[in-house]
Design goal:
It is built from ten helices and 16 strands. It is α/β, with parallel strands linked by helices. Strands 3, 5, 6, 7, 8, 15 and 16 form a seven-stranded mixed β-sheet that branches. Helix 8 links the parallel strand 13 and strand 14. Helix 3 crosses helix 4. The chain is globular and about 55 Å long. The chain starts with a strand and ends in a 13-residue tail after the last strand. Bound molecules: NADP nicotinamide-adenine-dinucleotide phosphate. NADP nicotinamide-adenine-dinucleotide phosphate binds next to helix 1, helix 3, helix 4 and strand 10. The site of NADP nicotinamide-adenine-dinucleotide phosphate (NAP) has 32 residues, from helix 1, helix 3, helix 4 and strand 10.
Length: 320
């Protein structure tokens, strides 16, 4: 099969589009013919070696932990899926990824893909939508009527978080630069904040939940917007527990994890029109280097997806 692999850590040039052995499903595993792979910042962070002390990756490594495709073969004991099922998935990021014609994943990681989405748009969903879901619902326990501040509401995680928070009945503030203010409004943000023109803390006050996708100064300045009993949830650096205690708030770091069960819930929301991925750019698998450069710019909106196996390319060139 064809795959994009790395043989060592480094810049986008270490991504090699090359032949690789097709994996075999073991007991409890499913072989999927990948139609499209989503691109996330974790892909280039792994490529650069930032995760090497945490995840036991071995070279050559296939990157990419977001996919939509079709079940090709099932291992012993797999009962919920059969050959031909259209599925999507956040696979275990400690194993080989989805920049490939085929991937093996564990059955509990899988869900049927949303019927209303082609593979390319479905592949843009799992990692970012699961992270948003787990942050807002599992960790922050978001309740209707709460006030939420989502940093980078135009980004991969942020644009799902905005929609999920609105679906739950929250009042949503979100930040992005000038060019993405219209997108924030289209996503349903109640108070869009242009971080190039305003300080978010001058607009967002008495906040129950901050979703920090930026870290550093943005995280530090976020403490002041929280009301007592509020929670600062970060995806990028663990917020200080001591500081949270002193302020009477909660601090949490979330590491998104695979969940076929939650992806099935997310598929229902997508098919009922409550949630939709925005796809900024679609590229062929062979152009993974370009996809990484774009992701690493930190200023794409929504998601980047890679077309694999001539999977559904009908959306090529469209913005969403
Ligand atoms: N812990 C986890 O499990 C987990 C899971 C997913 C992601 N993450 C991490 O979370 C971060 C965000 O991921 P992502 O996929 O959402 O990234 P992304 O899609 O690359 O985010 C890009 C967006 O960030 C916005 N942005 C850039 N600088 C900003 C700032 N100072 N203030 C507000 N918005 C800003 C950009 O808007 P403008 O162009 O308008 O500036 C752009 O739309 C990454 O570091 C990623 O690695 C962690």
């Amino acid at each position: 099969m064809k795959a994009v692999r790395i043989h060592n850590y480094g810049g986008p040039e270490v991504l090699q589009y090359e032949d690789a052995p097709r994996p075999q499903p073991q007991a409890g595993e499913v072989l999927i013919r990948v139609h499209a792979a989503g691109v996330n910042p974790i892909d280039w962070k792994v490529r650069e070696g930032h995760m090497k002390d945490f995840w036991p990756h071995k070279f050559p490594l296939i990157l990419g932990w977001d996919l939509s495709g079709v079940v090709e073969e099932i291992g012993a004991g797999v009962s919920r899926f059969k050959k031909g099922d259209e599925v999507y998935c956040l696979p275990d990021p400690t194993r080989n990824g989805a920049y490939a014609d085929y991937i093996v994943v564990r059955e509990p990681e899988l869900a049927l893909k949303p019927n209303s989405l082609h593979h390319i748009r479905a592949a843009a969903v799992p990692l970012a939508a699961l992270t948003a879901w787990q942050s807002l619902f599992d960790t922050a326990q978001l309740q209707p009527g709460q006030r939420v501040l989502i940093h980078a509401g135009s980004g991969g995680v942020g644009h799902f978080a905005v929609q999920l928070a609105k679906w739950k009945g929250a009042y949503v503030f979100a930040t992005a630069s000038t060019k993405n203010q219209d997108l924030l409004r289209e996503l349903g943000v109640d108070e869009p904040i242009d971080y190039t023109q305003q300080r978010f803390e001058d607009v967002a006050r008495n906040i129950d939940i901050v979703l920090d996708t930026i870290g550093d100064d943005t995280q530090e300045r976020s403490w002041s917007v929280l009301k007592k009993g509020g929670v600062l949830v970060s995806l990028v650096q663990p917020p200080s527990v001591e500081k949270a205690k002193a302020l009477g708030v909660r601090a949490a770091f979330v590491a998104g994890h695979p969940s076929g069960a939650q992806l099935a819930e997310i598929a229902k929301l997508i098919d009922s029109g409550e949630l939709a991925p925005v796809v900024d750019r679609i590229l062929p698998l062979s152009e993974a280097r370009r996809a990484h450069e774009l992701s690493q710019s930190g200023h794409t909106h929504g998601k980047i997806a890679l077309r694999v196996n001539n999977g559904d390319g009908t959306l090529e060139g469209k913005q969403s």
